[in-house]
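Consider this pair:
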Amino acid sequence: MDFKSSDTLRDGPRTPGPLSEDHLPDTVTAAVKVVIVGGFGVGKTTMVGSVSEIRPLTTEETMTQAGIGVDDNYGSETKTATTVAMDFGRISITDELVLYLFGTPGQERFWFLWNGLFEGALGAVVLIDTRRLEVSFDVIGRLEERGVPFVIANNAFPDGPRFPPEELRQALDLDPEVPILECDARRRASSRDVLMTLMRYLHELALARV
């Protein structure tokens, strides 16, 4: 028997533990909490999974008939699972700085969980879907009420209409300084660019307060 690949060792069953890449590097001196928010099916779980350097934690459950007539799944008709609590991941920006990523559930019936997820967050990414911009209004409103700075990331679905950034800014009623960029949440480099844009924006806001 190959004990290296077996779940049973001489001393008994093996207790699953963290992988080596899950350990926080010794060089890290600062950590920032970031939330990734948006409506149902805009790609929050996908973004966390694509960019996380550790195994992402997801709380996806199979969608049931309970959501029929309640959840707006336009554009996501083939979606079979949904986040019911949160997604979690981690990415290193430098040797000293890491971001902890918390993806929120998209359905309005799970928004009561948002208060806890927003607690201590330094900033947020708002993922939008141009096929249904209206689902972003309440999301943005909640961030503004809590004073959480955010950037807008348009997750460019193939069948989604394209709009210039200034048209999106006007449609979403955003302040002039809020960054808006296009992304592909499936791609690590694109998702990382979104997070770097958020970090630069937070840095600019911090300098403006000095």
Summary: The chain has five helices and ten strands. The two ends are 64 Å apart (CA to CA).
